[in-house]
Automatic annotation (TrEMBL):
All residue ranges annotated as the Yip1 domain in the record: 112-253
InterPro entries noted in UniProt: Yip1/4-like, Yip1_dom
GO biological process: endoplasmic reticulum to Golgi vesicle-mediated transport; vesicle fusion with Golgi apparatus
Family the UniProt entry places it in: Belongs to the YIP1 family.
Protein name (database record): Protein YIP
Membrane topology according to the record: Multi-pass membrane protein
Length: 265
């Protein structure tokens, strides 16, 4: 009897324990939605079960601020090369380092060597224009029967390294190899014109020699003027022009002479 009373009292006390809330904060259950009816995670989809109305209908989603954006409509295949519809996205050519306005400005500086050269012209150095000029020069020589792509890039690489070493030994300011290659490539533009002339007429005569000499002087004058303006070493222009003239003389030899031997025929 005593045991039954104890068991009954224990069960009663346990029931009373579970039925009565704990002292302090009442027992609460986690609710994923906040008091204002919005979702717990910003921008997440509201729960359908928790948002059912009294009649069993699903209310419309609130028209509050959320994630938005412009959905780009699929267009032709060439739209893949553009950046339309992406706000703040730079153009593709700018990401690749190709700026046609800068290429045109530097080319005009080379084609007009008597004009004053801005000392900050190579702040935005690039190799897009020089690579294009080297390719056009080699293509013109190929059309004239002189496939000298290997010699062109070999002479250009060796000459750029040599001029880079000499300029850093001569100047106190110094210059990096990227800008040296950019200046030498842009100043090759008159030699590209000689390559174009070699497609129409043979240059292995007096006219070709004079034309090659003029192009060497033109390229050398333009390149030395840019180097002197950038490095601020106007008193050493002749010392800069001498190795640069030797480099462009090698390109002129590739334009004038074919390099094929016909002595045994």
């Amino acid at each position: 009897m005593w045991q039954d009373n104890n068991a009954y009292g224990a069960s009663s006390s346990q029931n009373a324990y579970y039925s009565q809330p704990a002292q302090g904060a009442p027992l609460q259950f986690y609710s994923p939605s906040t008091s204002d009816g919005s979702s717990f995670y910003p921008g997440s989809r509201p729960s359908l079960e928790g948002s059912m109305g009294a009649q069993g209908t699903v209310p419309q989603a609130p028209s509050g601020p959320g994630f938005g954006g412009n959905i780009q409509v699929q267009g032709p295949w060439w739209t893949a090369f553009g950046t339309g519809g992406f706000e703040g996205e730079p153009p593709l050519l700018e990401e690749l380092g190709i700026n046609f306005s800068h290429i045109r400005a530097k080319s005009m500086t080379v084609l007009n060597p008597l004009s004053s050269v801005d000392d900050r012209i190579m702040d935005d150095a690039d190799l897009a224009g020089p690579i294009m000029f080297f390719f056009c020069y080699g293509l013109f020589l190929l059309f004239s029967g002189k496939p000298n792509f290997g010699f062109i890039y070999g002479v250009g690489l060796f000459g750029s390294v040599s001029i880079y070493t000499l300029l850093n030994l001569m100047s106190e300011q110094g210059i990096d190899a990227y800008r040296v290659a950019s200046v030498l490539g842009y100043c090759l533009l008159p030699m590209v014109g000689v390559g174009g002339v070699s497609v129409m007429v043979a240059l292995d005569d007096m006219f070709g020699y004079l034309l090659a000499l003029v192009s060497i002087i033109w390229c050398t004058y333009s390149a030395s003027g840019i180097f002197v303006a950038v490095l601020r070493m106007s008193d050493q222009r002749l010392l800069v022009a001498y190795p640069v003239g030797l480099l462009y003389g090698c390109f002129a030899l590739l334009s004038v002479f074919s390099g094929s031997s016909n002595g045994g025929k």
